[in-house]
Design brief:
By secondary structure, this protein is an all-alpha fold. It has seven helices and two strands, in the order ααααααβαβ.
């Protein structure tokens, strides 16, 4: 039974991290944390981006959870679920790295999906990058992607309302 609870905690954490990533992306990265995130939205030839510092923040979250769950660190004060939460955060980080950096931005491998959910994910994230600057935008999640046609309509409405400046090539 203990193993099943641990597995459920890990899985729940992985799913919860998509919401944490969405909220962080929308309100921090496109808000007061734009200074780190800006270069991710601009063309460059660098192997690393300031935006990669957010991966260190995610790793620190995971490591902190492992520490909170460790009897070696906290003795009897250790909180056992924290270890499994830390593992879920780490798994989400791996998924993010493979999907967002690898598949979507092709930082590690070159593969352009022709159909299915992977294509939808790439399209949704390209529409996220359709805005100029940090204002407005769509598709702030990293693993869950809405219908690209709905995202295009949302971008068009943002442009018409003066909320966001959109790259014209992105919505055609």
């Amino acid at each position: 039974m203990d193993a099943m609870i641990a597995i459920l905690i890990v899985l729940a954490t992985v799913f919860a991290m998509e919401w944490v990533a969405w909220a962080s992306h929308k309100y921090i990265m496109h808000g007061w944390g734009w200074g780190w995130h800006r270069d991710h939205h601009e063309p460059h030839d660098n192997a690393l981006e300031k935006n990669d510092l957010y991966a260190i923040v995610g790793a620190a979250m995971s490591i902190s959870m492992f520490a909170l769950g460790s009897e070696m660190v906290l003795g009897d004060a250790a909180w056992w679920p924290a270890t499994w939460i830390g593992l879920g955060v780490m798994f989400y980080g791996i998924i993010y790295t493979l999907v967002h950096d690898g598949l979507v931005h092709q930082r590690y491998f070159k593969y352009v999906p022709k159909s299915g959910y992977a294509k939808r994910l790439v399209q949704a994230h390209k529409l996220h990058h359709a805005t100029i600057g940090k204002e407005g935008g769509v598709s702030f999640g990293f693993v869950l992607a809405r219908d690209p046609a709905k995202l295009k309509a949302e971008l068009k409405a943002q442009r018409e309302a003066g909320i966001a400046q959109i790259r014209e090539s992105a919505t055609h």
